[in-house]
Every structure is written in C-alpha cells, then in structure tokens.
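My main concern about presentation is that the manuscript never shows what a single data entry looks like. In essence, backbone conformation is discretised, so a fold becomes a row of integers matching the chain in length. An entry of this sort, consisting of the sequence and the corresponding backbone structure tokens, reads as follows:
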Amino acid sequence: MTGCNTQPSATPDPVNAAASEFSDREMTGYVLSLNSQRRVISLNISDWINRHNQTGTREDMMHSVEVTLDHEVLLEDEEGLPIQPGDLRIGDKLKVSSVPQVQKQSGERLAVTADRLTRLHISRTEKLKWLLARSNGSIHTVVLYDEGTVPQVDELDFGREVPGAFTGGISWVEHRPGEAVDYKQGLGISQLPMLLVFDREGLIYQTASIKELQQWFNDRAAASKPANSSSLK
C-alpha cells in the first residue's frame, strides 16, 4: 500500500509501539521492497526504532534498513518451517535475529546482515493501524483506489464538499493486489474507488459518493450538537 495523507502528526497512534512489543536483541520490520538479483530485502523498522517511545507520538521520518540474504541466512515462518525469498510479499512482518551490525551506509539507508529472518503473523490491529483514527472521538477518512489509477476525489473536492474531514485527517491509499495487507479483501470492499471512514476501532462508514459522505458528516455533526434544554417563559 502506498498513499499520501493529511492526517495530523504528533498525535496518539492507535497502536503504540511500546517497548514490551519489541526486543532490543531482535529487530522487527515490514518489507518495503525485494531485490531477488541482489538478494536484498528493504525493511521499514520505524516501529522498532521507536520501541522505547512512551509518549504515544510518532515522528514523520521513516527508518529503513537493507538486509542481505546470503546463503547462510535462515529464512523461516513462525512455526520454524523454511520459506523461500519468493514467498515474501510487500508488507510482510519480519523479525531479524540477532540484531545485526551495520556494515555500510547507502544514502539514508543502512545495510546489515543477519543470521535468521522469521516471518511473523500480522494482527488485524496492526493491519489497520495506519487507517484508524488517531484519538478517541475522532475519525479518519481514507480514499482507497486501484493501483495505477488517479483518485476521483482530491483535496479540492474535500475542501468544497466535506471540509470537516480535514479535522481528523484524510489519506489516499493505493490498493496493490498481492501485498501482505489487502485492505479491499480484508474489509470486504466490493469495488474501488471507495471513501472509507474509521474511528479508533475500525471501519464505520463507506461510500463511493462524496455527496453521500457529505451527508454522513452533516448528520454526524447534527447528532453531536447538544439539545437546547432551555425553554421560553
């Protein structure tokens, strides 16, 4: 999945990468890219880097490393069964054992070696964490569209039709079939593009029409207004 977003930064993340979730001895990351010719896997290790962050905030910068798959590296699943590099998909969660030493630096990306790579199960909460709203009571709007297409709704459309969506943030996410996390399949979405609204727990509304989304926001705003309890005398 790729995309851009207007979601506010430096706000509580729905899944806080607490220190207890990660080990200092085992690096954990998500597959960004695979190069079979060079036998190199690029991993997003931002959550692992921020494992001791107890503030509930997330920095905007992504941290990544390149892991070299030489012939001595053991590649396995959580049950200990061997897997091949070709079995990996973009977005797979990998545990790197033990924490490798930096060999070199290529631009902003560190290149490392490891003894063992283990593909881990990704929970539903992990899969949705970039879509969920950042705080209690807020919502996050997502435009999910097919790979290689141009989203039919842009920021100008939201500005004209649903300006309230900017408060909780709007993200544009490209659906790429075959990746480890398939939002279309996982959320049971029949067609794309689709406008999705999430709270802290999950998907709460979907529509293909920005006019219907506008009405939903209007109804939500009206329902949240306190009733006028005063009476005329």
User: Anything to note?
Assistant: Residues 210-224 form the longest helix (15 residues). Residues 8-20, 229-233 have pLDDT under 50 and may be disordered.
